[in-house]
Amino acid sequence: MPTFSAYDGTLLAYHVFGEGAPVICLPGGPMRDSAYLGELGGLSAHRRLIMLDHRGTGRSSVPQDPASYRCDHLVDDVEALRKHAGLDRMDLVAHSAGANVAALYAARHPERVNKLALITPSTKAVGIAVTWDDRREIALLRRSEPWFTAGFAAFEAIVAGADTQDDWQAVAPFFYGRWNATARAHQAAEDDQRNGDAAAAFAAEGAFDPDATRAALATFGAPVLLLSGELDWALNPPLAAEYAELFPNAKLAVQQGGGHFPWLDDADRFATTISAFLG
């Protein structure tokens, strides 16, 4: 398992899959072990994936200062990984909450990014709000699913603030385009893969300055791909299109039938879309 030293001496781990030109991959969660990404639906057949375990997750060490879990500080870990890999410019792929780290990195180090792919991204870094009505609209697309009645009742309980832990379990299928055995196993592994303390600090006060980030991204000239899942209730396609419009050179790809983890729903389509963009 390869490792490198972060700016504060914390030993960070990464995992390498495939061969060819490298691409740095940032997991979400927030602060979830990169193992949940797998090999991104076979993207490793096209590129060499360098998957970072954020500090305090996976095989990476726990830092001495818990405040270093804050999203804007994780940008420095990405820069340390770039230098360690010997890359003058890098292709960067980020999923969900990891897209916040990638957006802040692009804003701070635009000259170091060759291409940027944001996969079903979280939008905290750029201040795009996702409302319960947005989620409800996507949730209702699943009304023919056998789990929908229980899942939607749990969703409404969460919206009303009367939720239980069982309700959060019941809404898990909304994150997946296909609630099959693969999705169930993927979801069941989440608790053991997430550092709860790190996740709580990820978006702490001072982590984000959306106005400043949006201004920086407006001048970010590198090619950008936003990949949205048609059924992703974390960020629906219209809001993903709004995110794409923040960049001068971005395109939106909507994966039909895709959820928040689109490489699980249609691996071939996902890998083809991302590899075609990266080249």
Key terms for this structure?
279 residues, alpha/beta, Rossmann fold, 16% strand
Describe this structure in a few short sentences.
The chain is of the alpha/beta class and 279 residues long. The chain is built from twelve helices and eight strands. The protein has one domain (3-127, 194-278): Alpha/Beta hydrolase fold, catalytic domain (Rossmann fold), CATH 3.40.50.1820.
Explain the overall architecture.
The protein is of the alpha/beta class and 279 residues long. The chain has a single domain, classed as 3-Layer(aba) Sandwich (Rossmann fold), CATH 3.40.50.1820. It contains twelve helices and eight strands. An eight-stranded mixed beta sheet has the order 1-2-4-3-5-6-7-8, sandwiched between helices. α1 crosses α2 (98-108) and α2 packs across α9.
What's the count of strands? 8
Shape field: globular
How many domains comprise the coordinates? Answer: 1
CATH topology: Rossmann fold
Distance between the termini: 27 Å
Percent of residues in helices comes to 25-40%
Order of helices and strands: EEEEHEHEHHHHHHHEHEHH
Structural class: alpha/beta
SSE arrangement:
Elements: E1 3-5, E2 11-17, E3 22-26, E4 48-52, H1 71-85, E5 90-95, H2 98-108, E6 113-119, H3 132-139, H4 148-159, H5 165-170, H6 181-188, H7 190-193, H8 196-202, H9 210-217, E7 224-229, H10 237-244, E8 250-255, H11 262-265, H12 267-278
Parallel strand pairs: 3-4, 3-5, 5-6, 6-7, 7-8
Antiparallel strand pairs: 1-2, 2-4
